[in-house]
Design goal:
The protein has a single domain, classed as Vaccinia Virus protein VP39 (Rossmann fold, 3-Layer(aba) Sandwich). It is 33% helix and 30% strand. The chain is globular.
């Protein structure tokens, strides 16, 4: 991808950070040489990450985000008017400060929302220590085969602790890399979550700037995400005043939940 402008290039305590303007994709975040998000297509990644879990719960009031340092996942969570508090936990405070400074036109100053609470902390440590209960947990980390700081949050032990800190109708969702290229990593995550939660579903979507399809795994304590039809999903979105989405809708939800597993295409 052609680079039109370098806005920032440096290193935090944990990773190399580049904030660039790509000719084809606009304002973008790159970590350790891997594209994390671009202005042109970040909605293709973030809307399917956030909204299926939020809608499966129906009226989440308290949401935990692990990772998501650029603030786009936080932005999507705060679209739901049922949300009273969104806690975003990221280990890299320097990255969060860079996002606040340089990426505001995309995260829409979500960090300033009075419902948002940012905690600079290792996600594992936060999950181990917290006594709070959450309706939805969204795990938005670098890929399980990516930078070292994210890999340790893709374990069965971690998912069991997430189960403990979610409410009776709790839902969690994680991005899980690309199962087509890294099926072993993906299957390990899917198998771990399937052993813990009553309902586990997998879905995926193509993200142009990544050059591959991203997989997601959603798990719920008491409701199968695939049981929701187009009309019901749209009704929940309307009830929570979620408008002007670019990708996600009731029709999209149904389609995502019906997709065959991506890794099967290699067989």
């Amino acid at each position: 991808m052609g680079v039109k402008e370098i806005i920032y290039r440096g290193r935090t305590k944990y990773q190399e950070v580049e904030i660039l303007v790509f000719e084809e994709y606009g304002l973008s975040l790159v970590l350790d040489g891997l594209v994390q998000s671009t202005e042109a297509d970040e909605a293709i990644y973030h809307e399917p990450l956030v909204h299926p879990a939020m809608v499966t719960h129906g009226s989440p009031e308290k949401v935990l985000i692990i990772g998501g340092g650029e603030g786009y996942t936080l932005r999507e969570v705060l679209r739901h008017r049922s949300v009273r508090e969104a806690v975003m936990v990221d280990i890299d405070g320097e990255l969060v400060e860079l996002a606040i400074k340089y990426l505001s036109r995309i995260h829409r100053d979500s960090f300033k929302d009075p419902r948002a609470r940012v905690v600079i902390m290792d996600g594992i440590e936060y999950v181990r220590k917290t006594r709070e209960l959450f309706d939805v947990v969204i795990v938005d980390l670098t890929d399980p085969y990516g930078p070292e700081i994210g890999r340790k949050l893709y374990t069965e032990e971690f998912y069991r602790r997430l189960y403990d800190i979610t409410s009776n109708r709790g839902v969690i969702v994680t991005q899980a890399g690309c199962s087509f290229y890294y099926p072993e990593h993906y299957r390990a995550i899917l198998d771990s979550m399937s052993r813990i939660y009553r309902y586990t579903r997998e879905y995926w979507i193509w993200v142009p700037s990544f050059g591959y399809a991203v997989n997601y795994i959603i798990a719920s304590k008491n409701r199968d995400p695939a049981s929701m039809g187009e009309r019901e999903v749209d009704d929940v979105l309307e009830k929570n005043n979620v408008k002007d989405l670019k990708i996600y809708s009731g029709k999209t939800h149904e389609a995502l939940m019906r997709l065959k597993p991506l890794y099967q295409h290699r067989q």
